[in-house]
Amino acid sequence: MKVTGATPLFRVLLRAHVPPIDGALRSAGTGRVLDAHADPAAIVINGRTAHLGAHVRPGDHIEIYDGHDRIESTFLRIDPIAPEPSPPDVERDLWTAGTPGTGVDAVGEHSGEVVPRLTLAPSAPGAPVPGSVIALTFDDGPDPRYTPRILEILRQAGVHATFCMVGTQARAHPDLVQAVRDAGHTICDHTEHHPHLDQMAPADVDGEIGSMAAFLHDTAGVAPQFTRAPYGGVNATVVQTAHKYGTRVLGWSVDPADYTKPSPVVIAARVLAGAHPGAIVLMHDGGGDRTNTITALPVIINALKARGYAIVQPA
Question: What is the pLDDT of residue 300?
């Protein structure tokens, strides 16, 4: 094109339809643009680098060097491979967790995007527990009036259960926490103060679950495998927080509402009516008068065994 007098470079390029093109930095995983101007185009006038605001005169020689797109740098990281399928967010029936695998992943230095590279060890899938199995769980203890009596019934019956403990009770009765552990039962995190977790801020949910998990680890010598949300109040924050502390969320599928103190006959009838392969039964060893639950428990165990059920612990 013809240039008369000093003309701004950007006007010359605009009229010539020759825009300088910067090179972009793209992510390693999806190729999305992280920085559209990571490698700026270079403009040289008469052998000297120039900017778009420079002036061009007749006879000037203009060279344009477009930038080059590039993929961000990556580093290698060993990552777990989650079992597929995994247990549901809230396990209302019995599941096996499966076994995580491990893999080598390339991780974008800027984006954090993960590019799977190599499986070192495959994962084993989770699955519903097969067969005529059922789990008994007890909430809101430990309570010195009722927990020892339940432990004795379970010992005599030769079965094991899961005890979902509340922090205020567990801290008051650490000897019972240890007694439950020593008898081979599963200990579950039922929060510090038994609140509605699904109505709380994330930091408060973290405090309720994390503090109790730490106490149980220090007192029982084992980290809890499960968290049970009081009142069944579960949302995404509760699930994420439970997983943060290495626990799965334990729900239930049979609730005889023993906390309302119906007669032992009613408690037993409700459990047996709801029993099904893989069921998780909710009962209580704390939080109120549990005399009727204790009276019903041997009836429940004997009837389940007579129906061919194996009484197991979540695993």
Answer: 98
What residues make up the domain containing 136?
129-312
Flag whether pLDDT at 3 surpasses 60.
no
Residue 170 in any domain: the answer is yes
Same domain? 228 vs 135: yes
- The amino acid at residue 227 is T
Question: Does residue 40 lie within any of the structural domains?
Answer: yes
Mark whether 87 and 61 lie in a shared domain. no
The set of long-range contacts for 172-175, using a CB threshold of 8 Å and a minimum separation of 24, is 173/142, 173/143, 173/144, 173/147, 174/219
Percent of the chain clearing pLDDT 70 (strictly above): 99
Residue 303 burial (C-beta neighbours within 10 Å; 0-12, 13-18, 19+): middle
Asked if the model's pLDDT at residue 88 lies above 70, the reply is: yes
Q: Evaluate whether 86 touches 4 at the Cβ level (below 8 Å).
A: no
Contact (Cβ atoms closer than 8 angstroms) between residue 80 and residue 121: no
Strand, coil or helix: what is 44? Answer: strand
Instruction: Check pLDDT > 60 for residue 182.
Output: yes
For residue 312, give the 3-state DSSP assignment: strand
The mean pLDDT of 260-283, rounded to a whole number, is 98
Q: Are residues 184 and 291 in the same domain?
A: yes
Q: Is residue 2 part of a domain?
A: no
Residues 22 and 138 in one domain: no
Interstrand relation of 101-108 and 90-91 (parallel, antiparallel or unpaired): unpaired
Q: Rounded to an integer, what is the distance from CA 183 to the centroid of its chain?
A: 29
Annotated active-site positions, please?
139, 284
- pTM for the complete prediction? 0.78
Residues 148 and 234 in one domain: yes
Let me know if residue 1 belongs to a domain.
Answer: no
Token digits of residue 47: 């052998």
Task: Indicate whether 280 pLDDT > 70.
Answer: yes
The whole-angstrom separation of Cα 114 and Cα 79 is 10
115/133 same-domain check: no
Counting the structural domains of the chain, the total is 3
How far apart are the C-alpha atoms of 245 and 255, rounded to whole Å?
27
